[in-house]
Amino acid sequence: MSKFELPALPYDFDALEPYIDARTMEIHHGKHHGGYVAKLNAAIEGTDMEGLSLEELLQNVSKYPVAVRNNGGGHFNHSLFWTVMGPGKGGEPTGELADKINSVFGSFAEFKDKFSNAAATRFGSGWAWLLVTNDTLVITSTPNQDNPIMDIAEVKGTPILGLDVWEHAYYLKYQNRRPEYISNFWNVVNWDEVARRFKEAM
Ligand code: MN3
Fold this sequence. Notes:
The chain is mainly alpha-helical. The chain has eight helices and three strands, in the order H-H-H-H-H-E-E-E-H-H-H.
């Protein structure tokens, strides 16, 4: 059966410097994300779960072992995370996504504040999300490696932007200064990719 694979990082480890350091990216991608993929494959091997897509597994994750929730979620979340960042990015969204953000949140600045607050106040390890649900945008956060496509999620939808606030994502460079990491994240957001995901989800 086909196995899940660690996707290549779409840029070099040092591409997001100085906002996210190369050593963090190397460990985060290779060891953490790589670990989720290996453990997910081990959890489904020789079971009926083999052959299901990652989305199928997560949309029905309440039926499966907790290893699928943790490692399948980890694989999905990081696969999205790498693509919504990039070197020379940041700035603001344009076009339909910008219009939608303005109409739902009032302004880009208000959206940023609300998303940053969701990321800063997530207790312990987890993620902040911007998601599409019922033709609108919603900001939420999830614990551990949960995400909004899981059937167990409090707020469900299609995530189009995610921010990893596990300490492994920032501790080497920022130590306990999670708000500084969050504030610097905006310098690397790949709005073209977020807009692509927005269009696909609407
Ligand atoms: Mn992580």
